[in-house]
Amino acid sequence: MARLLIAGYGFLGEALETQFLSAGWTIDKLSRSAKGSCISCDLSSADDVAKLSGQYDLIIHCAASGGGGEESYRKVYLEGVRNLLVRFPDTRIIFTSSTSVYAQADHSEVDELSLASPITATAKILREAEELILNAGGVVTRLSGLYGPGRCHVLKNLLNGTSRIDGSGERMMNFIHRDDVAEAMLLLSSNSVVSGIYNVTSEPVSQHDCYASLADHFDLPMPQSVDVDLPRKRGNSSKRVSNSKLKSVGWTPVYTDFLSLALNCRLD
């Protein structure tokens, strides 16, 4: 029976557990807090990771920075990846990175061969971690904005009246439902899938069209426009992230547009 180690059990880890268990995998889970049945492990600690026992067919690094800044990113992603590679040098590792590594701002389409030269400090750290994984023959998944049960910031902000549109709303937005991510991870777990970089995203949508579809569905007014020069946490990029490569190996997302995605986030 195949064994999976979920390195960083949280929002995405819950969906991964469900998906891989249904496929017959045995699963171990790591978290700093050792919540539930998780093994206590600080991925940034070489000692903690070195003490991990057992062998695995696959490791998925999906730990979150907890909203932290540059130092948190360095510990969770860069040091965490490095420590896992030292402890499990022969195990296939999938690293969950972000489409924020694409800094394009001209609304152009980007794929896995496009320039990924981020301008934010946190995204630069993700690129460093990606290179470690790629050099070790692993898989890098670049996830767009992650949504799922109880988590849909765009819809939440629209419903509570705090949403704003950048200028005329031309900026392109890219999203993905966590269940579609879990499905992609199971597909990429196969040794028959070539290692490398895979974008994991649904279809891109302009900010205007995203809010227009939601406002129409919920019979709400469109958000007000704000200065497009205001800085954003993930940078002021605007690009259409292509998922063609992942689709070419058999992945088909369930939530293909933002309205269907948002309506399946179950905000209670």
Description:
The chain has one domain (3-148, 175-202, 241-254): 3-Layer(aba) Sandwich (Rossmann fold). The chain contains nine helices and 15 strands. It has helices at residues 11-22, 46-50, 70-87, 121-135, 153-159, 178-188, 207-218, 244-248, 258-263; strands at 3-7, 26-31, 39-40, 58-61, 92-98, 109-110, 139-143, 145-147, 164-166, 172-173, 175-177, 196-200, 205-206, 224-226, 240-241. The strands form five sheets. Strands 3-2-1-4-5-7-12 form a seven-stranded parallel β-sheet, with helices on both faces. A two-stranded parallel sheet has the order 6-15. Helix 5 (153-159) crosses helix 7 (207-218). The model has no long low-confidence stretch (mean pLDDT 94).
SSE topology sketch:
Blueprint: E1 3-7, H1 11-22, E2 26-31, E3 39-40, H2 46-50, E4 58-61, H3 70-87, E5 92-98, E6 109-110, H4 121-135, E7 139-143, E8 145-147, H5 153-159, E9 164-166, E10 172-173, E11 175-177, H6 178-188, E12 196-200, E13 205-206, H7 207-218, E14 224-226, E15 240-241, H8 244-248, H9 258-263
Parallel strand pairs: 1-2, 1-4, 2-3, 4-5, 5-7, 6-15, 7-12, 8-11, 9-14
Antiparallel strand pairs: 10-13
Summary keywords:
34% helix, 268 residues, 9 helices, alpha/beta, 20% strand, single chain, 15 strands, two-stranded parallel ribbon, Rossmann fold
